[in-house]
Amino acid sequence: MVNCSAQSRPNNIVAVLGCGLMGSGITQVCISSGFTVNLFGRSETKLLEAQKQIKWGLTKILTKMKGNPVTDEEKYVIFQGISQLRLCTDIENTVHDADIIIEAVVENLDDTPGFIVNRLLVPYLIDSIRMLERGDASKEDIDAGMPLTCFISQIFKKQCLAMRCGTSYPMGPLELCDYVGLDTIANVMDVWRVSMPYDSRFAPCVLLDKLVSEGKLGRKTKQGFYTY
Question: Which ranges of the sequence are coiled-coil (predicted)?
Fold first, then answer.
């Protein structure tokens, strides 16, 4: 059951700056834990999309916990949870009464090239994009192959510890690209290309740049490698 009471908690109000996939996920967790959330977004349209996603997520949690469709009583609990969500387009109003502030805004990342998981993950994602670009395999085959391969690797204990702990491979690489955001991946590539110009892995990726230029950034724009 989703707990929508925060009366006993010392920190009752959380401000979440950013209403994308990450911001929506953080908000859902906070609401489920009984906090009131001030959610900041740049437009009412984006905020309403986030609210819809959060409501869907809360319903999915209840359904998974019970294994049965949500009852009218549980729908009321979800409604109570959503009622603890305040949608804000003014950042000062978002943070003025907050006990905790969490930033979840997409940025142009000045990513340190030494981060272990990023250094392993991003080239892996780019290689999958280049494979699709060359026509080596379909996007469905690329995405279907990796979770199985990684499952076998886990069985035989041969998978890199950083990748196993950092990503767990819950989905294929192109689906993961859509989830992360193609613009975010492109930004990381731009930074690394400047800091490591000798590394051919970070050369421009034509297909990635094309999708970003067309505004097809993944799940947050409803279209990337897949349509959502």
Answer: none
